[in-house]
Amino acid sequence: MAPEDFIALLPLLVTALSSLGVLLLAAFHRDHRCVAVVTSLGLAAAFFTLPVAAGVAPRQVTPLLRLDAYALFYAGLILAASLAVTILSYGYLEKQEGQREEFYALLLFATLGAMTLAAASHFAAFFLGLELLSVSLYVLIAYVRTDVRPLEAGIKYLILSGTSSAFLLFGMALIYFQSGTMEFARTATLLAGTAALPSIFLVGLVLILTGVGFKLAVVPFHMWAPDVYQGAPAPVTAFVATVSKGAMVALLLRYFVEIAAFRSEMLWWAMAGIAVLSMFAGNLLALLQDNIKRLLAYSSIAHLGYLLVAFLAAGPLAVEAVTFYLTAYFVTTLGAFGVVSVLSKPGSEAEALDDYRSLFWNRPWLAGVFTIMLLSLAGIPLTAGFIGKFYVIAAGVESSLWVLIVLLVGNSVIGLFYYLRVIVVMAADGRRDVRPADTAQAPHVSYADGLVLAALSGCLFWLGLYPAPLIRLVQTIQKGVTGS
Amino acid sequence: MILVWLIVLLLAAGPAAWMLERRGSQWPRWIALGALAIDLVLALTLWTERETAVSLSNQGVWLADLRIPWIPRFGITFHLALDGLSLLLVLLTVFLGVTAVVASWTEIRERVGFFHFNLLWVLAGVLGVFLAMDLFAFFVFWEVMLVPMYFLISVWGHEHRMYAAVKFFIFTQAGSLLMLIAILGLTFIHAQQTGVVTFDYQQLLGTTMDQTVALWLMLGFFAAFAVKLPAVPLHAWLPDAHTEAPTGGSVILAGLLLKTGAYGLIRFAVPLFPDAAQAFAPVAMVLGMVGILYGAVLAFAQTDLKRLVAYSSISHLGFVLLGVFSWNAVALEGAVMQMLAHGITTGALFILAGALQERLGTRDMRRMGGLWTTVPRFGAITLVFSIASLGLPGSGNFLGEFLVLLGSYRANVLVTVLAALGLVAAVIYSLAIMQRIFHGPADESWTAPDLSTRYLFTLGAMIAVQVWLGLYPQPVLDTAGQALQNLRGFGETTALISRR
Description:
The structure holds two protein chains of two kinds.
Chain A: H1 3-28, H2 32-48, H3 50-56, E1 59-61, E2 65-67, H4 69-94, H5 102-119, H6 123-141, H7 148-179, H8 184-191, H9 199-216, H10 224-231, H11 234-258, H12 265-287, H13 292-313, H14 316-343, H15 359-362, H16 364-378, H17 384-398, H18 402-427, H19 436-441, H20 447-465, H21 468-482
Antiparallel strand pairs in A: 1-2
Chain B: H1 2-19, H2 26-48, H3 50-56, E1 64-71, E2 76-82, H4 84-103, H5 112-131, H6 135-144, H7 146-156, H8 161-194, H9 201-204, H10 211-228, H11 237-244, H12 247-272, H13 274-301, H14 305-326, H15 329-360, H16 376-389, H17 396-411, H18 413-438, H19 453-471, H20 474-485
Antiparallel strand pairs in B: 1-2
């Protein structure tokens, strides 16, 4: 390997080294704060190597990984999200009992896996990244062992994730059988002349889509999401909802664009069906929830449905829309789960809707952050979520997907019901029943947590008010992927 | 630049009012009042300069114009511009803003800072709507009005405030999203034809497209505006929202938010899709006529004072819908006059209803009666606005309704004749207000203080404006007419078939 290869790999290498460092540190010097700081520094360092790596991009490092602007952008997104999760986890784990240090090593492994997925250009890298991410997540989800629900969630995730990996492997095998290669680019050249995809290849693709669908928690592969979201520690939920899904979307988008998968109309319709079902199931089931974490789980199912609408639009605008939407979704989801995490008390998470009653008057800042996050999820202007939705609708309109767009809009209106419901509960009158004991008991927000929430709120407004810089960035990475 | 200042001032005063609440609850009130007073001065400056400004501006269309690049990827600019129509509505916005602050002076006692923050931001959104000439910016402002209004209703409203607030939000948002699709559809059709992606109003004017597509896109805009206006099948949110909102919120809802719907029709829905609008006009006119009669009948049936005024709004705004879709000089000027006069009259009636509720603790007119002897000033001022609301000559409402009917008579005789019946119904429900509250036997012997000087001053100013609109409307009609003339209208003709 040439030195440039190592430079291109720097973000991954730094993350890998930090995870080893954290493991060693935990073995010799068990100190929660120290480990958390090292993890944060490692992630920050990896983040700051991105510009260095961008200097040699685009670069194919071994047949497995392709480090181009697209991969680096998603790596940046993943690293930033992981950093936020790390900081939130510190505050969260401080309130829990037991060993805390290994948590961070696992988080770093999972981050590494996610970045591998974003850069994968080969089925081997795809599978390696996926397993690295999933295996770390099994443990992370069940990390708080004093309660029964994280364990339940962990087992559920383990079994379903294992099953989906099996589907995925079988799909890869079929594609390998048909094309004789596992490289995305070679597959694309082999298929270049054909108007329709060969049927075995198509079956393989559908199986892969099944495996990916589990990870993305789109209908009908969504059954695990509410339970796992509810059971996992809030920061881990944030990680599952953002990093794990984002990396998968990045890979799927790259693969589908590269092999022009939508030349198969059947595949397009299957995907459209998934999108529509996800939107409706997510939004309608969210209406019935009294648990914030479950509500956000169903809402994220719906959001992946919106995202798939942009995905289906195809063309350069689709890549842009997906990337922008995902960025906005990252910011918003991290912020929402961040508030849930900060509000959690030792032994009990703030997940019941009642925990948020009159929050506006007891904890105005936290309630304010939560409100803007919910408004962003609902796609109200001045927030990142609006520009994201605007992008998605623009992509859909450009490709004349009128039916999908109208369904998306209808679903946004359904979505308003449950987002507003939470806001209504938070704004509910607390004047008569302010219990001083309650406010005293409410956990103190540490500076670090406050900083994370403030930064996320800042990003939310920045993307909502002046998205031009990010749009320029997204446009350049789109050119790298679609070549136009 | 003055256009930006109008908006930025309110946006900045909002957080200031919120933060300085800790210094004392008078601070937010004075900050809000001060910001709006400065805005009023700025708007009046624009008014006095309106004659010279037209000839000076190079476009000849705008009295003031401002463009700042915003999102180049989609050709979005932050484009604000002002013509006579916008100017009148800006003046109305700022004026009613001041009255809303004054009307909330004693009513709002809880979380005063946050209240004024929301109040100022709604007003900023409304100003933006009246000034934005970029469809994206317009949409953003359109939505900016929404969230603060939601809070105004849900936090400071009356008994069923949560229900009303959520209903209001969802109705409006559903309409807005349909408009968003239509905006994007229009943009992409324009881009396909010219290769230029832009959201600029003037560039999008005159985009040619298939008749069916145009109709669908027009309906997207119409949906959003008809919800706000409200046109009849989409009006269900209005009685609840108006009734449950605090006084300041009701004033802004009825006086301004409804006008944004009417403004949208005049500025965007018809000029962008003139042929589709013309094809749709008979339906819209019938909807307007139905709204006039339906609103009037239901207004009479109400026992809740605020609800009565809310239904009367549906009736009055029906005239606007009728006038806009008749699309001739007389009807359009009538519609604009009706918008202004209705804003003042209904705003005043909501202030009176709010003040009455503050004193009596109820809005139920069945429990009132014979109040004239107790609160004579109340009675006298309510009388003025009730007869304005019923459209007595000398009031702006009369002029508006008269011009609308005069204009729509040319467009559709039958609809106009039926709509004219609304005038009779208006007499009945308007006088019913007087009858039920101030006359008749006093079953419950209320004791209440009469209107304070602060109210007298505010309401006096509103009477003055109302009388001015009614007796010397020419400057207003000229200012509006000049702007309306520049709008693209039905067919290939420009808006005004004939000038006086």
